[in-house]
Each structure stands twice: as C-alpha cells, then as structure tokens.
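Lecture notes, unit on protein representations.

Consider one protein chain, 263 amino acids long.
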Amino acid sequence: MRRSAFIALLLAVVVLHPPEAAAQYDIPYGVIGSGGGHIAGSHQNWLTAGQTAVGVCTGSHMIKSGFWHVAGISSTVDVAFAAFDGDYDGFAVHLRWEVSSDLPVAGFNVYRTDAATEEMSLLTAEPLPADEGCLYEDGTAIPGRTYHYQVGALVEGGERWSAALTVELPPKPLTLHQNFPNPFNPSTTIAFFLPTGGPVALRIYDVGGRLVRTLVDGSMPIGTHRVTWNGMNDRGAPVSSGVYYYRLRAEKKTITKKMVILR
C-alpha cells in the first residue's frame, strides 16, 4: 500500500470512528502480545498495538500511527485512573493516585503483592474515603524486597483497578535513627530498623554510663520499630534535664546515639 493511500485510510478510521479510536478497551490479558496500555486486574486497557510515533491527538487521548489491532474486544470502559505513582523515604512507601474527574468513586482499596511470594494482600482494613485524598502510606514494606501495588476504585457495580506499580526497595542494614523530637520534653520517639528478626535490647544511659531505663529487651521481628520514652527511669521517676544516650543491641552489633531532655 502506498504511503498516501495508508494515510488516507488512517484518517478515514479517525473520522469515521473517533469514539472507538479514542476509547480504551477491556481486552482479556494475553490476547495482545505488544503495544501500549496498562494492566488492570486480569485485563489490559489498550489503545493500539505496535504503537510508534504520535499521529493524531484528540483532547486527552492520543491516536498513534502504526498498525491497529482489534482482538477480543468486549466493551469500552471509562478511564478510571489518570495517574498512579509512589516513593520510598526509608520508613514507608508513599502511594499517590488520581482518578477521572467524572468517575463517581465511593472509596479505595489498596493491594500489594510481594514479588517473592506473589501473594496479593489487602492493605486497607476499611476502604479509604474518596473525599479524604488519594494517598496511602505503607509502613510495613521491608527494605530489600520488591512489591507490586494496585489500587481498586469502588464504583457502582464493582471495582476499577489501577495499573500495577512496582516498587523496589534498597536493602538496609541495622539502623538506629535519631530520636524525635530532640531536645524533648516530656517524651520522644526512637525508631530503629531490624534486617532480621531476633533478640533486641534498647536501653537509656546517663553521661556517667549508668543504666537509666530499659525500653526493649526481647525478641522482635524484621522491620521498622518505634519506641516512645516518657523521660522516666526504671523506678518510674522523671529524670533531670541533660544529655542521655540510647543504645541498640541486635545481631551482635551495638549502635549508640545521643539525645537531650529539657525540663
């Protein structure tokens, strides 16, 4: 087919079928082996297959040149999710998403798959209210692992799924974080990360090296933990203002940091 004839055919398709060309289609997963679109549950939402350069733009949709592929089309569906991304700050994975402005959503469910086990789990005990923002913080993610996240938008008649978001977390050694707030009065929080589960001890000492308070002494699982110190010693009496040291002992390693209490 000559180039001029092909362009005329493409334009004819656009002119005669703009709703279909601009829509996304609900095609069973595996029917198409390549092309644009994104996974949504057990289906893929596709515009075209074998996409190359942008051809014609219609509003927020792009009709791309290349060959068109139609296979197993069941119905057209609204674009539920306009965006879905996230980041990791060393403590938690922060997810953010946007939905179509004209999509009536009652709430959201957040799902996660551990790439090691491929088991899908529901992270939200209750659906997130749609009127409180499209945000979720996953504080249970473990460094060194890879997770796949999806969000389900609760709409009339069922649930619309987002594309899958893959987050690879870098490995993290035994870590003792600076307490916050510091200086503090009357209490402060101490966070630490355990790369493996096992015996853990977290104790407070004064500048003379004397034991003031034992906050943790036992076995703990892998992950990030937070412990609050209320400025009391082991006898239940408030300590005086000054410099104190908190010491973490785990994996046959010891990490010590300094903090200040101001009465």
